[in-house]
Structures are given as C-alpha cells and as structure tokens.
Amino acid sequence: MPQVTVGQENNQPIQLHFEDHGAGQPVVLIHGYPLNGQSWERQETALLAAGYRVITYDRRGFGQSTQPSVGYDYDTFAADLNTLLEYLDLQNVVLVGFSMGTGEVSRYLGRYGSGRVAKAVLIGAIAPFLLKTDDNPEGVDRSVFTGIEDAIRKDRFAYLTDFFANFYNTDVLGGTRISDEAVRASWNVAARASATATLACVATWLEDFRPDVAKIDVPTLIIHGDADRVLPIESTGARLPALIKNSKYMVIKDGPHNVLWTFADEVNAALLDFLKN
Where in this chain does the record put each AB hydrolase-1 domain (predicted)? Predict the structure, then answer.
C-alpha cells in the first residue's frame, strides 16, 4: 500500500495513503469531507483515458491514512500535500480540489507558491472565507457550525445521514443522479473515518483563505453547483472569479454540493477542456 510519512505522534509515523496511476501530466485530486481519494472515481477514469497521470490521496484522519489526534488545520494539510508533491517529485502538476480539498489547493499556493503547479481547479470551493464577520457579510453565521459540531458529538452516525442528504440533495436527485447504494457507500466511508478528525475538521471550514486566494497566479477553473446546500454558492464560488486572476467560472444548474458524482459528465467535460487548453 503506497504511503508517505508526513509527521509523528508519540513516536509513531503519521502516513498518508495515496494512489498513483497512469502517465503524462500529473493531476493531483484532493477529496472532500468526510470521504477519501476513491471519491474521485468518475474523474479518475476520465483522466486516465485522456492520458493523464492521476494521483489521489486520503487526508490524514480519513480513508486508509493514519488517524492521529493532531494536525487538523490547513497549515498542516497544506504541508502534507507539499510532502507528497516532493516525495513524488511532481512538476507541471494540476491541483484539483473538491470542497475541503479546495482549502489545501488555496493554502498550498498561498504558502508554497506555484513552482510545481501549472493549473488549479476548485470544485465546490470553501474559499474565500465562509464565516460571517463584520468585514465578510457574505459569510455564514457561526451558530451553523456550532450546531454541526454539537450534532457530531451527540451522534456522529446520525449526523452523517443528514449530511449526505444535503451533500447530494437526495430529495431532488435521489433515484436519478444518485442511487441509494452510492449514498450508502459514501456513508460507509465516512463512518470509518476518525471521530476526532470528523469533529475537528468543522472548525477548519472557518479558515480565512482570502490572503491565499490573492496569491493564486496560475490559470484556475472554478466549478460550483447553484443548489449547493453545504457551501452556498453566494458565499463561496460566486465570489472567487473577482479574486483570482485568469480564472474561469462554471455554474452547474441544479448542482448539489457533490457534483463530482451527480453531474460527473459535466464536470469531466469542463475539467478535460481546461486541462488541454
């Protein structure tokens, strides 16, 4: 099982599980909460068929990566990504983030620069700043996130059921663009994630990425569903084109938060077109 060591806890290694397949220009896919690298299966298939090298990995605390009690912040997540890029010595790479994964892309480019990076893709972005403050009136009230944390503490598994209903908008798209089996598969992956990570990551959603976004200097594709109930488009994706130079913005009509599965054809077409042009 391919792994890279990104730190230690109590003298034991913290390791990220990754998969590295294909040849050609490398594309690193960074998954959303609370899933793992396998959640990119519909994009990986399309990218491999188009001749790209595809790298996925599981964020610490999720999937087959180590589940430490520490390191659940975006400085650490970006450092983990940097370690993986250095370990594989990737150059001319395309960084593609979904949901929480867009935070890694933003923070990595803000902190480490674009020396290794050719392009970036932000799908269902968490940037630029999700928390409502005096200087960020477009954000979301802190009470929403406090409620999520309370729900996880009370019954993590029940919370996940509610979460995925809004992750996929199953009341609208269930049985057409998302099956019960696919939702159950996502729930099973999330249930096996670290309970510590599942709770700790909620606070990371409130990170201010505005300084990072301002430093993005590579061509960037932004994709967001206009029916996103998890990261509302008005607070997130719709604000990014004005903040990122040389960006392209695509809105998926009726798209829920996870458009990777529900609108895979549309996402893949936009992604492949962006990569080749």
Answer: 26-262
Q: Could you report the per-residue pLDDT of 46-56, keeping only the tens digit for each?
A: 999 999 999 99
Q: How far apart are CA 256 and CA 102, in angstroms?
A: 16
Sign of dihedral through CA atoms 145, 56, 167, 63?
Answer: negative
What pLDDT, on the 0 to 100 scale, is given for residue 196? 98
Question: Range of 33's domain?
Answer: 3-276
Write down the catalytic residue from 106, 228, 235, 247: 228
Q: Which CATH number is 42's domain given? A: 3.40.50.1820
Q: Calculate ∠ Cα 169-43-38, nearest 5°.
A: 80
pLDDT digits (tens, 9 = 90+) for 124-161: 999 999 999 999 999 999 999 999 999 999 999 999 99
* Residue 33 reports pLDDT greater than 90: yes
CA distances in angstroms from 223 to 16, 63, 96, listed in the order given: 27, 25, 11
Write the burial class of residue 223 (CB in 10 Å: 0-12 exposed, 13-18 middle, 19+ buried). Answer: buried
Q: Establish whether 21 is a catalytic residue.
A: no
* DSSP letters spanning 101-150: HHHHHHHHHHHH-STTEEEEEEES---SB-B-BTTBTTSB-HHHHHHHHH
For the sheet containing 26-30, what is the strand order? 3-9, 12-21, 53-57, 26-30, 93-98, 117-123, 220-225, 247-252
- Does 99 qualify as catalytic in the annotation? yes
Among 65, 99, 106, 186, the active-site one is: 99
Name the pTM for this structure: 0.98
Q: What 8-state DSSP symbol labels residue 59?
A: P
Q: How many other β-carbons are positioned within 10 Å of the β-carbon of residue 210?
A: 16
Which tens digits make up the pLDDT trace of 20-30? 999 999 999 99
Tokens 């990218």 appear where?
47
